[in-house]
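Task: complex structure prediction.
Instruction: return structure tokens for all chains below.
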Amino acid sequence: MMDVKQFKENLLLYGADMHQWPEELKKAGLKVLERSPEIQVLLKEHEHFERLLKARRYEEPANNLAERIISASRQQKAPFSPGSFISALLNEFHLPNPALAALSAVIILVLVIGFVIGFSNPLGSSVSTAQEETSLQAFLYDEGDII
Amino acid sequence: MAVSQLIDIYYPTFTIVRVNSNHPHSIIVLSAYYRHKKTRAMDDNLSQLVDEFLIRLIQEGKHEAFAEIVNRHSKRFYNIAYRLIFAKDDAEDIVQEAFLKLWEKRLSWNQSKEAKFTTWFYKVVVNLCLDYNRKKKPEPLTEDTQLVDRQQGQEVLLQERQKQIMFDRSIQELPERQQLALNLCFYEGLSNQEAAEIIGVNLKALQSLIMRAKITLKERVKQYSD
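Output:
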């Protein structure tokens, strides 16, 4: 059962419109409101207080506020900076979730390893033309063949 | 997974990695900007897109998306700015400044960190307003507040006006965070949770701020009525 103190607190927290209260509090509040004249007075007082709050001074914005902002932004050029360039680049490669990002990273890693292995030459790079010709001949012809 | 689903996932950019099998060492990595056919239809109907999607388009430099965000939210953010600084022209300037920052620094918005655009942008506008209020010197009481015009028939009206002005001033005199909590929850109609996130406090602290603000104001109202 909600008491007066709890009702007051809920009024302050959720307002005089009891339909906006959390469901359970609303049920308990409406029950106690029916029975207690003291709580009915409290609710009326709070409604008056909220009307005062709502009557607070307010000035409408200029009608062209949005247009003004849009036109000002057109005149604005985003300055180039290496940071923004990198961000743009990262954004271009933006991936929707970590799993896909990890998968992409693995693919890129495999490609990089492929590059490294492919371009590396474990036997050294100094193979003379003569040697190349010799090995080619050895590949093409068996020993003792007449060329 | 269908290709169209993949495209959806990778929208707005789509990266194609192709390996040329004839030359195992020659790998062509082609990053192609892929515009999904749905997007073209969406372009014509930006008003139906959620804010977070518009922000992604803004990050791609789409000015139409920026215009849509401004048209959609400028009044809402003006409201909170006005209620925090009580000056129409300055509130408009602050909202303009906030939106221009959004356009200028569009890449700095991180969707994974900031769950909701409006929550994040409230923080931007609120911080600009608080900076403005800290720089501004406290205003002396205006003529209106001390106005006592004894002309017949106008007295009641003037008393009401005077009460309202005093009440506005009482709101302005609330501690910064109480004022924020009241504005966000009561005037802007945000949930307690969202308001707590904007102010940077937990839910209980936010509720305590709202209660203290309203109790103080109720007491002031009683004082004026007596």
